[in-house]
Specification:
cytoplasm (chains A, B); lipid metabolism (chains A, B); 351 residues; homodimer; Isopropylmalate Dehydrogenase; 11-stranded mixed β-sheet; transferase (chains A, B); 12 helices
């Protein structure tokens, strides 16, 4: 199945210098992939020439005169910069010209624009941000929400589980298990939101909508106890950032120890092949690409500082999700839930 | 300054087999330290003999007939097992016979008993659990709460900052900086609780009660951006467990890579001194010992699975905090805050 990705060339710390080479690589490796490149003509045109994309049969160019910067408030992106590359790229998805949009721009603006232009799916109150984290089993744990929703109701957590289930299926996990992030059994056992969310998840499991494993704790994310871990956006964002910080500290310390003395440098040289293989296994760039889920169209957010390899991974995520028809798949589960529940899932109290 | 620690010998996965040797080591290294050992006589007596602690001038033994197990619900620990080693050890602090209690037992039971027997300090509504995590600066970041309080009001977060400030001072950080854990600026900027907590912290800073740095994110914990990181117990527990899980996964992967082939095993042998030094730097046992803060007496909780080296670190934490007079120091800040605020800090809405 072919896919057409709308790519916001201007987003991220590096803009077209990174996003364009990533597209070239993607097109080479995926003959079924097409891209619509969106950006400022004066910046992008010379690069299109030099990368020989001008007359590429699977490349289209759509001009946009403005760029949403990383400090632009949501309001600017929504109301002022109406011809931004980010907005134009999402509009291509809305208009059915592309099946997914990929951007390395400002997360808040991207989420707001995506929500405004694409709208949410049936009964979905809040879209969520989902990403894969590496785990001991080598498959990756899908975690959501990572920061779109600070305070969540039980229904939202259930909906995240549904979105995650549909998304994970596009990455080859046909019947993924869902874990609800909670805290240690030793201490107070979670709060009311978590308890009620667990009930909703058990019901959905009994109806065959998803596979609920039960509560999990922070360490289960990296153990890979479940394929999906669901939590509110505050907790998810803290867990993600904490992990990034720890990984950085540890790799810094390994580097320090191996460069401390001439002898340890020699040891590093000897151990280099092993260290390299280790680094490749935990390379965070391989996990780049967070999906904005729950919308009537797919948007994938790349890390702002991603390099071409990292941005290409985000393109791949989008490509895979399009091939797995993630939006339609999510819709199907939501429709089934809506019908099986007497009042539909929208009956829950608004937050 | 001398210290007397009441030690619950029976707590944890290993009981006296681990806790007793740790006490022996502690006594040897700290001639100013005294311990009151609490445990079941039939189990402990032979070990006291074999470790030559029977007539040790700085050792006292207090019998207790019961043990709080790791699965005992809080109610059992509070109402049924009235002669447990955990309870007796805390009572020694309450009665002024010891200045701190150290236990590797069930966290929920320990917190409930400590709260019930010792009571909270002036204006403190919720005690908190605090521990040090390693950071890039090599000093350690004090983080609290780690799971005692699932839902926190802004006032609680302020109080955690006060408790943390007093506790960190006992570890040699005279004027520690406080960071309030929040999520990325890109996304929605925190919730109302965090915003109001930040206001309270700014006020306390202006009055010279503590040093408020501002908001921090998950990665700042390991960067060591601030000496103290304050958050609610749900978030803190998830961040802690997530870090533990990631550290385990990474060390497992390093081990795997270095034992994959005979050649990589040889490389590991060459690199061993460096790998050992690295492991020592990140050895989680060195950070064992979480303090229960906000009470009219100090209680230190050791990890249940700690070995003798780990348990000794928990004893050291308690010893240091006693020498720094942490309870009195916390009280002084609270009294100053109580007086400077027209209604005292207890004026905030109850949760």
């Amino acid at each position: 199945m072919s896919s057409t990705l709308a790519v916001d060339l201007m987003g991220g710390d590096h803009g077209p210098k990174v996003t364009l080479p990533a597209c070239v690589q993607f097109l080479q490796e995926h003959p079924e992939g097409r891209v619509i490149l969106v950006g400022q003509p004066e910046v992008v045109s010379p690069l299109l020439e030099s990368h020989r994309l001008k007359d590429h049969p699977r490349v289209e160019f759509v001009p946009a005169s403005e760029v949403v910067t990383s400090d632009d408030p949501v309001e600017i992106a929504l109301r002022r910069k109406r011809d931004s590359s980010m907005r134009r790229a999402i509009e291509l998805v809305r208009d059915g010209r592309a099946q997914a949009c990929v951007s390395a721009g400002n997360t808040g603006a991207l989420m707001a624009l995506a929500r405004y232009l694409l709208k949410t799916l049936l009964d979905i109150e809040r879209p969520a941000i989902a990403t894969y984290l590496p785990n001991q089993k080598g498959k990756g744990t899908l975690m959501l929400d990572l920061g779109a929703n600070v305070d969540c109701e039980p229904l939202h957590l259930l909906q995240f589980a549904v979105m995650g289930t549909a998304y994970a299926a596009t990455a080859g996990q046909a019947q993924p298990t869902v874990g609800l992030l909670n805290i240690g059994e030793e201490v107070i056992k979670g709060n009311d939101t978590i308890k009620r969310a667990a009930e909703l998840l058990r019901e959905a499991d009994a109806l065959g909508r998803l596979r609920f494993h039960g509560n999990v704790e922070g360490d289960d994310i990296f153990k890979g106890t479940t394929d999906i871990v669901v939590c509110d956006g505050f907790v998810g964002n803290v867990a993600l950032k904490t992990s990034e910080g720890l990984a950085q500290m540890l790799s810094g310390m390994i580097r320090e120890e191996f460069t401390r003395t001439p002898l340890s440098k020699l040891m590093a040289l000897v151990a280099l092949p092993v260290l390299k293989r280790f680094r490749r296994r935990v390379d965070h760039r391989r996990y780049n690409g967070a999906a904005l889920l729950g919308l009537r169209g797919l948007v994938v957010k790349s890390h702002g500082s991603a390099d071409a390899f990292g941005f290409e991974q985000a393109l791949l995520r989008a490509h895979e999700a399009v091939q797995g028809d993630v939006v339609r798949h999510t819709e199907r589960i939501l429709e089934a839930m809506h019908e099986s529940s007497p009042q539909g899932t929208e009956s829950a109290p608004a937050s």
